[in-house]
Amino acid sequence: MKMMYGYVRVSTREQNEARQMRALHDIAVPRENIYMDKQSGKDFERPMYHRMVRRLQEDDVIFVKSIDRLGRNYEEILEQWRFLTKEKRVDIVVLDMELLDTRRGKDLMGTFLSDVVLQILSFVAENERKNIRERQKEGIEAAKMRGVQFGRPKRDLPDNFEQICCQWRSGEIPGKEAARLLSMPLSTFYGRAKEVVSVGECGRMLLE
């Protein structure tokens, strides 16, 4: 007997999976057959997806809300689609796109049309993600130009930072000693020294 499975994926643990879950419940996918991964887009580890795949039998049906739930990019979506339909010999239904339903059009023309639509939508999905990342990058750059600060605020430097830094630059003390005197990690000392005091400034301070 054919079994119905649902797969849900959200890319971060803060995202809400309710929309995908509701769509699967509306078509009566059994709750115990719904598999969900909450993983970052960076590593894309999907333990629940792989667990679902191990249970699949020929002619079972997988339901997903949208095509990009199957993969993080164009190549991976196509790879998973072909693996599931050709090797596992299961059907896939993409609820957001009626044409992507492998239960329909099993003849040559139907398969051809489904493959064409799949490739177009996979390409569009990947490009949309790239566009979103590009818009985010542009927004961050624009904010930086307006003076918006990102990341943790830098701690105020000790009053004697410039003096100790100049002693280090002139070779009077090593970097480790300078960092110890200032009670800061060595890497932090080197980073702040580059920002705050130049070689020329140290020369003037020493002459004074």
The unreliable regions are none
The shape is elongated
The DSSP helix count reads 8
Largest sheet: 4 strands, parallel
Indicate the CATH topology of the largest domain.
Answer: Rossmann fold
Topology record:
Layout: E1 4-10, H1 18-26, E2 34-38, H2 47-55, E3 61-64, H3 74-87, E4 91-94, H4 108-145, H5 161-169, H6 175-182, H7 186-196, H8 199-207
Parallel strand pairs: 1-2, 1-3, 3-4
Describe what this molecule looks like in 3D.
With 208 residues, the protein is α/β, with parallel strands linked by helices. The chain folds into 2 domains: 4-128, Resolvase, N-terminal catalytic domain (Rossmann fold), CATH 3.40.50.1390; 161-207. It is 51% helix and 10% strand. The chain is built from 8 helices and 4 strands; from the N terminus they run E-H-E-H-E-H-E-H-H-H-H-H. The protein has a 4-stranded parallel β-sheet with strand order 2-1-3-4, sandwiched between helices. Strand 1 (4-10), helix 1 (18-26) and strand 2 (34-38) form a beta-alpha-beta unit. Helix 5 crosses helix 8 and helix 6 (175-182) packs across helix 7. The longest helix is centred in the middle third of the chain and has 38 residues, at 108-145. The radius of gyration is 28 Å and the shape is elongated.
